[in-house]
Structures are given as structure tokens and as C-alpha cells.
Amino acid sequence: MYNILTLNKISKFGLDKLDAAKYTCSDDCAAPDAIMVRSAKMHDFAFAPETVAVARCGAGVNNIPVDACAKAGIAVFNTPGANANAVKELVIASLFMASRKIADSIDWCKTLSGKGAEVGALVEKGKSAFAGPEIYGKTLGVVGLGAIGAMVANAAKALGMSIVGYDPFLSVKGALALDPAVKVVSDLDELFAVSDYISLHVPLNDSTRDTVSADSLAKMKDGVRILNFARGELVNEQAILEALESGKAAAYVTDFPTDAQIGAKGVTAIPHLGASTPESEDNCAVMAADELVDYIEKGVITNSVNLPNVALPASFKTRVCIIYNAQDGMAAKISAAFEGSAVTSLVSAEKKGIGYTAVDVDCAPDTAKLEAIDGVIRVRVL
Quick one: 122 and 148 in the same domain? Predict the structure, then answer.
């Protein structure tokens, strides 16, 4: 029986993917084999020695100590694309909110409550304060053309916008998913210079932090409108507030508001609703559960952020899965440990300095011999 710890409420559709005859799911488990999490902060979490995997029901993994998990031999999975449609829909809605000051106008209408017969005249007199441009014919710059970015680009194109995209890591699959009319540029400054609207869809790391800064804002059109449904720190807080105050930027819609941004001129603050749909939560939980089952029962790795993705034969008698620090000579040392065994399959891959080897044999080898190899982090026998 495998024990699964849930750190947040996980969709029933995902939990139902875990065979009750094999898995016990609980929010109170001292020695879980795996953990399912949504937004719970795990950087101070004390991992049990039995834990072999963490599945994040969502794309971002900033709440998980990914590198520390790798060093402990814990695979971390996410669910890219499972919440893409939910985020795309909110981004498209935010294009209109950024243009037409919809949220501000609704708040203003509430102040007219109790004015009786005066309301009609007050509405006609006050509506000009909330006027704004149409998005049709304008240019949207999409920074990051992964699952969400591509869907945003295609949807905005269908609404009559011109699309410029930027993604230095654009995959062939990603490129094929784009509307042929999307112009992909290799220079982010080129996107900044031509975009009326800019939507951010990249992960947060040292190279993407402050993608929108005082320097980059200076390269943008006056009155640019910026949408951030990726991570708050992609936009420098002081720079965007100053740009809104000066008029350099006309609007900033963020799903990650801070105290300084709430109520600030030009800011539409949304309480992290990007993936908050029942469909998205179901999709993420189902994908996360499938990833855990594949890894726990078969050693297959799909959508891991700290271990290499590895596809393996469907059937096997005994499978030995080894996680290790990738270094010269490791392959030879691991192979030597299987001398005399009838090996039917051996698959290896590396990612970010961590290696993973899965060996199918007729009978289990001496795991102590494998664990004694310098650099080996974890050995599992399935």
C-alpha cells in the first residue's frame, strides 16, 4: 500500500485515479510515499525518508524546494498545460479590463446606489471617465510561447489583434501550435517596441525577474498595457507604479497583487484567479495523479522539473531505478553492479546535474552494492 499526503484540497477526479486497493490518501500522513500539493509552501517542509515524489497540481513550482528534492532523490512533477485554458480565458478578459476600465466603472456605479431617479443622468455624465480603446487591430506582445502563451496568442489573433511572440526556447511542438500569422521575434526589445499590450507567460528565475523594469519600459510604447498572469516578480513593482503615474503605462493587470499595487492608479488587481476554475483543478489533479502512478509503480518520469523525463518499456519483471549525481564514470559503475544479471533493458538520462537510470532485470540485484556507489542518491526496486 502506498501512502499519499495531500497538502491542499485535491480534486476528487485526481484522487479517484489512485486505485484504492494500492493507495491511501490523507492530509495527515507522517511517512508518505508521495505528496500532492497545490499552493502550500514547502520550503520548510520536513520530508520523510520514504517520500520519493512530489506532484504539484499546477505549472509553477516556486512553492517547492526543487533542488533540495533532487539532492534527496525526490522527483518533483508539475502539470504543464492542464490549467492553460483557464489562464488563457482570464488573460483575454484582462485585455478588455485593461482597455475599457471595466473594474473601475463597476466600482463607480456602486457609489450611485440610492440616487434614485438621478442615476440615469449621473451615468451619462460620468461614463466618459471610463472610456478606452478597442483591442481590435492593436498589437499584443506575448512573452513566452508555452502552453498558455500559445493559447493566448491564438485567441487574441482570432479577436483581430496582431500578435508578436518571443520565446528563446520555443519547441517545434510549440511552434506548430501557433497560428501561422503570429510573428515570432528573436529580440525581446523588438517586441517591446511595437506592442500596445504585453502579456507575460514565462517562469520566474534569475534571467526573467524584472522582465518589466524601468529600462524595458523605456523601450515600450507610451500608454502600453501590461498583463501579468505568470509571476508577480516578473514586473518590477516600483518601475510599473512610476510608469502608471507618469502615463508611460496606461494599465497593469496582475494576478499577483501586492499591498502597494492595490488601489494604485492604473492597476487592476486580481486575487490569483488564473487557474481557479473547477475544470482546471480537475485537469491538474488528474495529470498529477497519473504522473505519480507512472513513477511509483513503473519508474516512468513525465513532466518532472528536477529529473529527466524517461519513457520505459510497459512490461518488466524487476525494475531498478537509480538517481545519482551525474559525473564521469557513473554509467560504468552502475553497469558494473549488474554484471552477472540478465539485463533486458537499460535507459539513462540526465538533467541539471542529476542522472536517472532504470534497469530491467530478471531478479533484484544487491541494492546495497548500488547504494554504496559514490554519487548514488536513491535506489528503488519495483
Answer: yes
